[in-house]
UniProtKB/TrEMBL annotation:
Keywords: ANK repeat, Repeat
Keyword Repeat: yes
ANK repeat boundaries on the chain: 15-47, 48-80, 81-113, 115-147, 148-180, 181-213, 214-246, 247-279
Record's protein name: Ankyrin repeat protein, putative
Pfam families: Ank_2 (PF12796), Ank_4 (PF13637)
SMART domains, sorted: ANK
Lineage summary: Eukaryota, Metamonada, Parabasalia, Trichomonadida, Trichomonadidae
Domain of life: Eukaryota
Species whose genome carries this gene: Trichomonas vaginalis (strain ATCC PRA-98 / G3)
Chain ranges passing through the membrane: none
C-alpha cells in the first residue's frame, strides 16, 4: 500500500539501511521481490558499507540471497572492514548460504580488502574448527598469505593451537613457508618459547636451517629469547651451531648479548667458536 502511494523504496533510516536491507534481515523473500520489482537498489550500502547481500550472510537469509543474486547483486562488494559476503557467512558458520554463494561465483580464496585475510585466516584466528574444515573441504588455498605474509599455519602457531596446526599440515600446508619477515613457523614457535609446538614442527620436517630476513636461524632466535629447551632440541636435531646472520653474528653472540650463560654454555659445550667475530670484529665476549 505504501509503495502504491509513492513511498520511496530506497529511503534510508538512521543507519543508512533501506527496506531491502530489512527484508534481508528478516529473510522475507516476498517483500524483497516486491521491493526489487519497484526499483529497490540491490547493491545499496548502509553506514557499515554493507549491502543487502552482506545482511543475508549475517542472518542466514538464504531465500533472500537467492532473490538478490537472481537480480544481479554484486557478490564481491566489500563492507567497511573489507569483508565480502562469503567472509561474513563463514564467520557466522552459515554454511548453507556459504555453499550458495560459492555455487554462484563467490571466490572461496577471496581476500579481505585491507588485511588480505582469507576466510581461513579468520577461522584460525577465531578458533573455528568447523569453518576450517568447511573451507578446506571446498578447496581453499591453504597457503594464502595475509598482508604480513603469514599463512594460516603461521597464525595457528602464533595462537599455539596444536589442533589447527595438525589439521593444516594434514591437508598439505607448507611448513616452511615464510612471511614477509622471512620467518617460518619454526622461528615463531621458538620466539614464543613454545617447546611442544617447536618439537612437533621439527618432527614434521620443519627446515631447521631456514633463515629469516636478518639471516637468523631458529637457534639465533632461541638464544635471543632465552629458550634453552628449543636450543637443546635444535642442536640435537643437527642445526649448524655457528651459522652467521647478516651481521656475522652466531647464536653465541646472541646469548652473550643478553648475558644468557646457560645457553652460552650449551653452545660452547657443543663446539661453538668463542673466537668467532661478527662483521664489526666483535666476538661473543665483546657482546657480553
Amino acid at each position: 500500500m505504501l509503495i502504491s502511494h509513492g513511498a520511496d523504496v530506497n529511503a534510508k533510516d538512521k543507519d543508512l539501511q533501506t527496506p531491502l536491507h530489512c527484508a534481508s534481515e528478516c529473510n522475507s523473500k516476498e517483500i524483497a521481490e516486491l521491493l526489487i520489482g519497484h526499483g529497490a537498489e540491490i547493491n545499496s550500502k548502509d553506514e557499515e558499507k554493507e549491502t543487502p547481500l552482506h545482511v543475508t550472510a549475517y542472518c542466514d537469509s538464504i531465500a533472500v540471497a537467492e532473490v538478490l543474486i537472481l537480480h544481479g547483486a554484486n557478490i564481491n562488494k566489500h563492507n567497511m572492514e573489507g569483508k565480502l559476503p562469503i567472509h561474513v557467512s563463514v564467520e557466522e558458520s552459515h554454511y548453507k548460504i556459504s555453499e550458495f554463494l560459492i555455487s554462484h561465483g563467490a571466490d572461496i580464496n577471496a581476500t579481505e580488502k585491507y588485511s588480505l585475510n582469507t576466510a581461513l585466516h579468520n577461522a584460525v584466528t577465531y578458533g573455528d574448527t568447523d569453518s576450517i574444515k568447511f573451507l578446506i573441504s571446498h578447496g581453499i588455498n591453504i597457503d594464502s598469505k595475509d598482508k604480513d605474509g603469514n599463512t594460516s599455519l603461521h597464525l595457528a602457531v602464533v595462537n599455539s593451537d596444536i589442533e589447527f596446526i595438525e589439521i593444516l599440515l594434514e591437508n598439505g600446508a607448507d611448513i616452511n613457508s615464510k612471511n614477509f619477515k622471512g620467518q617460518t613457523v619454526l622461528h615463531i614457535s621458538v620466539e614464543k618459547n613454545d617447546i611442544d609446538i617447536t618439537k612437533y614442527l621439527v618432527e614434521h620436517s620443519s627446515n631447521i636451517k631456514s633463515r629469516d630476513n636478518n639471516g637468523k636461524t631458529a637457534l639465533h632466535i632461541s638464544s635471543k629469547f632465552n629458550n634453552t629447551k628449543a636450543a637443546n632440541l635444535l642442536i640435537s636435531s643437527g642445526i649448524q651451531i655457528d651459522k652467521r646472520d647478516h651481521e656475522g653474528k652466531t647464536a653465541l653472540h646472541e646469548a652473550a648479548a643478553i648475558n644468557n650463560t646457560e645457553i652460552g654454555e650449551i653452545l660452547i659445550s657443543h663446539g661453538s667458536n668463542i673466537h668467532a667475530k661478527d662483521n664489526y670484529g666483535k666476538t661473543a665476549l665483546h657482546c657480553a
